[in-house]
Structure prediction request, 224 residues.
Amino acid sequence: ETGVTQTPRHLVMGMTNKKSLKCEQHLGHNAMYWYKQSAKKPLELMFVYNFKEQTENNSVPSRFSPECPNSSHLFLHLHTLQPEDSALYLCASSPMKTSTEQYFGPGTRLTVT
Amino acid sequence: GQNIDQPTEMTATEGAIVQINCTYQTSGFNGLFWYQQHAGEAPTFLSYNVLDGLEEKGRFSSFLSRSKGYSYLLLKELQMKDSASYLCAVDRGSTLGRLYFGRGTQLTVWP
Prediction:
């Protein structure tokens, strides 16, 4: 399998549930990202990992907890979410160098009920 | 804060030319990206500009003026499959990989 994959593609969860989103990249990149995409809003960076180390947390609430066990895998653990957290969550990866394109996964459509 | 503006929606007909503008005001600049995103799909890279001028790639071209904080994406010989959202993103150069995105321009191509 090539590129960036994400599972699940769709997720519906209640506010008291705990779930995890998974991202995997097969491109040999060293940087991985989580983005949130809500309707009518710009794509919003959540977290950046370089060589498995978190280099940016864009003031994301603690109910979102990222994990990067290696350069190919990235998780986003979710707990006690709010309805306003419903959005498309996109994962991306890139080589770890400046001014380089990012490769996005297809996203997980999350609905919090 | 960082400000990246692009029109919300545009329409055009098959075979026509359309220009999607993006203006930015950011503290720092290290390049500007354009991405295409079809409904329900991942954004895909279209172009990157860091120097002033026009970059041509097939039917798509991208222009940058750093002094004006302005870029445009030019799509020629429009096809129905070009109907998508076009995202402008600026690399401020502050943090490796950190991009600031505009809200996207939804382009609809009519037959």
